Each structure stands twice: as C-alpha cells, then as structure tokens.
Amino acid sequence: MLSTQHNETITRVGPGTPMGEVLRRYWIPVLLDWELPAPDCDPIRLKILGESLVAFKDTSGRIGILADACPHRRVSLYFGRNEENGLRCVYHGWKFDVEGKCLDMPSEPATSNFKDKVRTPAYPTVEAGNIIWAYFGPKEKIPPAPNFEWTTVPDTHRGVSKVLQESNWLQAVEGGIDTSHSSFLHNNDLSDKTLLRSRSTAPIVEVELTDYGYAYSSQRLLPEDETKYVRTYHYVMPFHQLRGNQVRNSGGYYMPKSAGHCWVPIDDETTMVFNWTYTWGDEPLNEADRALRGTGNEMYADIDPADGFRSRRNRDNDWMLDREMQRTKNFTGIVGVNTQDRALQVTMGAIADRSLEKLGTTDRAIIAARKLLLQATATVADGGDPPGSRDEYYGIRAIDRVMAIDEPWQSLKPEMYPVGAH
Ligand code: FES
Ligand SMILES: [Fe+2]
Questions:
Q1: Of 196, 264, 272, 315, which residue has the fewest beta carbons closer than 10 angstroms?
Q2: Closest Cα to residue 399, out of 259, 271, 261?
Q3: How big is the CA angle at 276 (ends 61 and 157), to the nearest 5 degrees?
Q4: What CA–CA distance (Å, rounded) separates 376 from 23?
Q5: Does 73 contact ligand 1 (Cβ within 6 A)?
Q6: What ranges do the domains of the chain cover?
Q7: What is the pLDDT of residues 209-259, one digit of tens each?
Q8: How does residue 422 score in pLDDT terms, banded at 50, 70 and 90?
Q9: pTM for this model (two decimals)
Q10: 160-178 burial by CB neighbour count: b if 16+ within 10 A, else e?
Q11: In this structure, which ligand is nearest to the CA of 275?
C-alpha cells in the first residue's frame, strides 16, 4: 500500500506537480507517424500531461507541437490554417512556425515590431519507430533521442499502435510490470492444461535495479519437467515496459521477438497506450504480428481512430463481457489480451486508491517501481537527473526462455544486454 499523499505525488502529471516535473524530463510518444501523413496536412489536437496542444507538419515537413491556445486571445490553434511553413490562427491571422516564433501579425500596423516579441510555447520533436516523440522539459536538460531496439529495426520488423485508456497512467504501468496476472486474466483457453502460465501460477519475481529503472525476472517452476519458464522484463523509467515474447505455450521457441508498451499520461485520469512489437532476427514479422492481431491493439479492428483511438470494447459496453465465454472458454469472458488489461485496470477507478491495497510477494516489481518514481520526484526537485533520462537504456532487450530448473535466470543477462551495455 501507499499513503494517500504518496499516491497523489506519483500519479498526478500536470505542470508544476512533482511527477509532472519528472515526466517532463523524458522524450514522450505523442503521435503515430501516419497521423501527420504529409506537409501541410490537417493539424491534430492532442493533450499530453494535462496540456492542450496542436500538432502540425509544415510545408517543409517539419513537425510542430504548439500550445493549443493562441497567445493573442487564447482561441484554439487547432482551427488554424496550415500554410507556408506555419500555422495561422483563424481569429486575427497571427502565424507561428514549428518553433513557436510569430512569423506574421497582419492585424497590427506594418510598422509594428510586436510580432518579434511574441512567442508561443513549442516543443521539440523527433521521429523514431514510427512514432513522433516530444520533449516538454527544460531546454538544457533535453535527453539524447529515444533509442530502443524496437525503434531502430526496419519497419517490416515492427508493429505499433495506440489506444486510449480511461484511467490514470500509473495503474496501467503497474499492470504491465505485474507478470502474475497473466496466469489468470490472460488464460484464454481453460481447456488447455499444457499452458505454461496455467501450469505454474505463482511466479517467483526478482527485481534488479539498474541505471534506467530495473530488470526483473519471473520464474515459473515446472518441476515435473525439471524446467522453469523464465520471462524477463525491463522497466525503463518512467513508463516503458519491455517483455520477452518468444516462447509459445508448448515451450517451443518462436521467432526472436519482444513486445511492450509506453503508457503516456494524457491527463491525470486518461492515458494513451502505445503498443509495439518487433523482431531482432533477420526475418520480418508476419502481417498478423505487425498488425498486433489478437492482442486487443489492432488498429481499426479493436481500436477506432475516429473515436479518439478508443477501444471498440470499452467501459460503456463492459468490454463486451460474455458470461458464457467466461464459463466455458476463457478466464475473463473478454476478448483480447490487452483489452482484458485495460478493462480491469479501468475498474480500479480513475486513479487507484493505493492506500487500500494488500500487496503480496508477486507485487515486488510494482513496489520497486513506485519507490523509483517517488525517489525521482525528490531527485528532480533537487536539480538532478532521473534514471533513464540519458542513454542508460540503449541496447537492452527482453527475452524469455524455458530453462533448466536449477540454472540461475541471470545466465540470460548476456542476451538481455546484447550490445554489452550494463
Ligand atoms: S486569437 Fe489568435 S490571432 Fe487573435
Ligand atoms: Fe496483462
């Protein structure tokens, strides 16, 4: 459990809040690249960390993220005209470039130099892994560009999507670093007794702190085979999960593959979940894997971009809970692994009340993440750099294996840090 005060500290994200200041020290995924398909395309309205913004691609192909409120009289720049390397407010015609400079102020006399004095908040962006990332923190603290293995492989080797989650970001992160629920929530075939996570439902969770957050293993012992199923994860501050995704239920090896999420706070009570999967092998992902099929994260099938990237199964229809399916087929009666995650995490309330919890041994990784986040609020308040805000996480990889029961999981480390980092 967590005190009410600490719960407030690590969940709230607005400008000036302790965690809001921490989150502003990282590159943050804000859009999928195809949302701004061409120069001078339609601007997009978005909200990140409680701030209303507008995104546009200018005539030269540069991406701008500006405060949505025009600095003149505060109307929405989303309604603006995207023209000739700038976004022009349709109220009085003031025009801004991707850096927030006022290029034109036709409502003032030609002799006025007022336009040279006006700027609007603008945030740097970078593209990586089919995602547009932005940075909202102090200029002098800007981190090196995001560089996960999944952002660097060819497009053919990666799939990404995003989906709205109507809850605070932290309970979503905590779901992602809670390996034990997968034996239950994600048991999608009640009749199959060979499923590794059904055979062993109480994983041993071990956490090793790193410079970027932590690595952790979950070990599911399978004594009748003298083996164990080991799944490793990386938690990269503040909201990245990387998980091994190679081993299929039979215990046979599948392609070299990993998956994960970034849980980006829209505001205190809403989150945009970026989903990714990739292979580091020579073979590209197949079409189903690239589309994230069967995960609840497939664009258009599970997610409706025209409805703010909301899941078609959502809280208004109880995620299409099917009681007959729950009795006979799967544990939840809900279709889609990550739909199951979102459904249950949203039932915790807009911001989960952690002062009422009873945590067990499998919650170790969650407790560790909360400690790191709390420490980070103090570090940043003291002028320091929080973990994961430099290049500490470059070169990490999450893997999973069926291995001999007495072999230490740490023997997987060379594969978890393939380029020798850490
Ligand atoms: S409010 Fe935007 S130009 Fe006047
Ligand atoms: Fe899950």
A1: 315
A2: 259
A3: 80
A4: 10
A5: yes
A6: 27-141, 149-416
A7: 999 999 999 999 999 999 999 999 999 999 999 999 998 766 677 889 999
A8: very low
A9: 0.97
A10: bbbbbbbbbbbbbbbbbbb
A11: 2
Distance 119 CA to ligand 1 centre (A): 13
Among 72, 96, 108, residue to substitute to test ligand 1 (most atoms within 8 Å of Cβ): 72
Determine the distance separating the centroid of ligand 1 and the alpha carbon of 118, expressed in angstroms: 12
Question: Quick one: pLDDT at residue 79?
Answer: 98
User: Which ligand is closest in space to the CA of residue 67?
Assistant: 1
Which DSSP helix (H) or strand (E) runs through 410?
Answer: none
Domain 149-416 has CATH 3.40.50.970: no
> Which tokens is 114 given?
């007022």
Cβ atoms of 271 and 168 closer than 8 Å: yes
- What is the C-alpha to C-alpha distance for residues 414 and 411, in angstroms, rounded to an integer? 7
Determine the pLDDT at residue 377: 98
Query: Closest ligand 1 atom to the C-alpha of 89?
Result: 2
Mean per-residue pLDDT, 262-273: 98
Ligand 1 atom with the shortest distance to the CA of 70? 2
Q: Which of 91, 95, 112 to mutate to test the pocket of ligand 1 (most atoms within 8 A of CB)?
A: 91
Mention the CATH class of domain 27-141: mainly beta
- 105 C-beta closer than 6 A to ligand 1: no
Ligand having the closest approach to the CA of 339: 2
Tokens 């239920």 — which residue? 249
Please state, in angstroms and rounded to a whole number, the distance separating the CA atoms of residues 305 and 277. 20
Rounded CA separation 200/95 (Å): 61
Give residue 101's Cα distance to chain centre.
Answer: 30
Gap between the Cα atoms of 210 and 236, Å rounded:
9
> In Å, what is the CA distance from 72 to each residue of 87, 173, 192, 391?
14, 38, 63, 39
d(CA 21, CA 14): 8
Which ligand 1 atom is nearest residue 92's CA?
Answer: 3
Contact 275, 296 (CB under 8 A): no
The reply to whether 27-141 and 149-416 are identical in fold is no
